[in-house]
Amino acid sequence: MTITGNAYVAAGTTLEVQGNLTLAPEACLDAFTLGTVKVNGNIKVGNGAVLGLGCSPGAIGPEPPCGVHTTNDVVNGNIDANQALTMYLTAVSVHGNVTSNGGGPGLTFHPYINFPIKENQINGNLVVQGWQGTWFGALRNTVHGNVVINNDEGVARSEDGLPDSTEIATNTINGNLVCNGNSPAAQLGDSGGKPNVVQGNKVGQCKAV
Description:
By secondary structure, the chain is mainly beta.
């Protein structure tokens, strides 16, 4: 299945894809709702595309209509983004890897674009490299492989005026946690999060988190 424009999964509805799901360049899948998505293959996110998947009370940006509910979206393969504008991944079960290379709107507040990865179960690795935007963070995920966060940049500021992006907190990681070349450096920030629990090694900037 290939999405070439804008697609929306409304609350209370279900999208099930038997094979792979592809978001063509500049396409958008808005399943950042209380709908249900199951993809039995892989998801590929193209240049300038947006993938919004999953919803929970802890999700933000833009504010989702989650209330006290958490969705149960499943990807049986990998999520692979190449120069995507952004992804909003919340409470998704991914049986493979989540990989994002490049992308984003650039270092700007206009548009104000976040890249949140929150409360997911990822059986493989989580890799985000070279994204530029307003805010990026990985919070409260369980990752059975490695987490690699390299060369990502965000211009967001906290209420105190401090750099507020690259928040890497409260994750449980069975492999290694590697962070290099991020601006700002990987931090707990003002997320209220706790240091990451890592079975392997904390490497680079992530030694501090």
